[in-house]
Write a structure and sequence with these properties.
Elements: E1 12-18, E2 21-27, E3 42-51, E4 58-64, E5 68-70, E6 73-74, E7 78-84, E8 89-97, E9 101-108
Antiparallel strand pairs: 1-2, 2-7, 3-4, 3-8, 5-6, 8-9
This protein binds fe (ii) ion.
Fe (ii) ion binds near residues 9, 97 and 100.
Length: about 110
Amino acid sequence: MGDWKNEKHVPGIHVERKDGELVIKTIIGEEIEHPNTLEHHIAWIKVFFQPEGFKFPIEVGSFEFNAHGEEEVFTKPEVVATVKTDKKGTVYAMSYCNIHGLWENSEEV
Ligand SMILES: [Fe+2]
């Protein structure tokens, strides 16, 4: 698991399994807040799930964050994605900072 508690860019992944679903919450800057300004912000998060024994990660979703202070409105770089599956596997999350580039994390579920 990436060091999301000490590095503000690493996606924190929190997964809850209930009634045949995986509820995947991905948060950037959970412990150390990442700036959100027009000049410096998290632009997107992508979430993938790779079922155990399957060759490739499957893209669950892409999430864009587009409010960076217009009229004091800011999107928080966090998302919840729900997947219907009973399978075990690995959740991957990637985040993109417009200044510091691509970051990733994964979690066995
Ligand atoms: Fe950054």
